[in-house]
Amino acid sequence: MKISKLLTSSMIASMAFFAGLNRSEAALLELTHDPLFLSQSVPPAIAVTFDDSGSMERGYVIGVADNTSGRFADPLENRIYYNPNIVYSPPIGPDGVQFPDADPTAARVDGFGEAIGAVNITTNYVPLFIIDYERDEDVRIQFARGGHPGLASVRRFSAWTNQYPTPAAISFTGTPNNGVPAFYTERQTDGSYNIINVPADQHVNFANWYSYYNTRMKLGRTAVSRAFATFGPSFKIAWQQLNANTVFPALDRFETAHREAFFDDWLFKVPTEGGTPLRNAFNRAGEMFEQDSSYTTDLSNDLLSCQQNFHIALSDGAWNGGFADTTITFDETGQSPRLPGDSTAPPGPGDLGQEYGAYTGTGFQRIHSSNDNLRTLSDIAFHYWSRDLKGGLDNNVKRFQKDYIASDGSTITVPMGQDEW
């Protein structure tokens, strides 16, 4: 079988939707529950990679690491901060039921189960700079002033705690000795920031943001839970992290105990500790799709030649760390064998025809260049895109028009908090 479609994505599109849609845009967005790329009855296989690096603890995007100024609380500059034009819907659990709206008078600091405490955001709100979820279940909280004069005496609280600190622990030295009503800021033409108190009719929306969205990790958990809520046994899903839990569980149908494990035992408990070794994670996903066990179901032990394979990787940053694999193809030039064309054989089942002639590695058909022998994410995606993931099986995966060879794959990058990738 030529490669079953392998799609890699650096951020699931839902995260971009949750982080940037205003109310009018959201109202126009109509998405089918059946992904448009699926046109067959065999369950597609999805490998999910979730970034558990330390930067996922942050309540701000890249370039807004200032916890004292109004920039932190301006939703046009810090896209993670509360935006009154966005409806913040709670996450969805494995039973398909949406979490309850947060209570503005007792909004949980962590809406996913950590017993850190609750805050009255109508009177005692203090912005959170980070929530650091460690693997040993310790939690570290740091605070931000956000340019609010009522929070001028707040310092970052960096001690380890499993409870939301008392006002004394936040080190208020002024009066009053508590937080302020929920707010956001707006930048003025002179560079200053106006403080905008959140009106009462938005308190529930703000509380939902506070409990479920106000850090990169919370945003990711909520977005994935909502994106995967309608997936059921017509999908096969396995998952991993970058630093811990790097072994995929069985690639099983998304139902019963397997579905519950995805949400309750994994997604809602991913920590924020470690680097960003994305290349190794991409490689592990590709290797999983080379295994016979990835092409069976509980209904049949026969290998499924028409199964589509997808990798969705969620990360807030570019890769770092070492990468020891020596089998990854850098690019298509100088490799043996060369990438095949499709003119020497009739089209396979489901193919649209012979889109290309014999491939030479030059000219119009050059699709991926090397980068001084540096193995990048695109090198790894290209490697598994250009190879036969499961040799010996017929190619029964339909391809899109002008794809490179029958049942090839695509790479989509949707970064969060960066203008360039």
Overview in brief:
The chain is built from seven helices and twelve strands.
Largest pleated sheet: 6 strands, mixed
Radius of gyration: 24 Å
Q: What's the assembly state of these chains?
A: single chain
Helix/strand-derived category reads alpha/beta
Outline = elongated
> Count of DSSP E strands?
12
User: How large is the share of residues in beta strands?
Assistant: 5-15%
Q: What value does the average pLDDT take? A: 76
Count helical runs.
Answer: 7
Record the strand order, biggest sheet.
Answer: 10-9-2-11-1-12
Residues in helices, as a percent range: 10-25%
Q: Enumerate the spans where pLDDT stays under 50 for 5 or more consecutive residues.
A: 1-5, 7-39, 173-177, 331-367, 399-414
Order of helices and strands: EHHEEEEEEEHHEEHHEHE
The rounded distance between the terminal residues' Cα atoms is: 33 Å
Your description of this structure?
By secondary structure, the chain is of the alpha/beta class. It is built from seven helices and twelve strands. Strands 10-9-2-11-1-12 form a six-stranded mixed sheet, with helices on both faces. Strand 7 (183-187) and strand 8 (193-197) form a beta hairpin. Helix 1 crosses helix 4 and helix 6 (278-288) packs parallel to helix 7. The protein is elongated, with a radius of gyration of 24 Å. Mean pLDDT is 76; it is low at 1-5, 7-39, 173-177, 331-367 and 399-414.
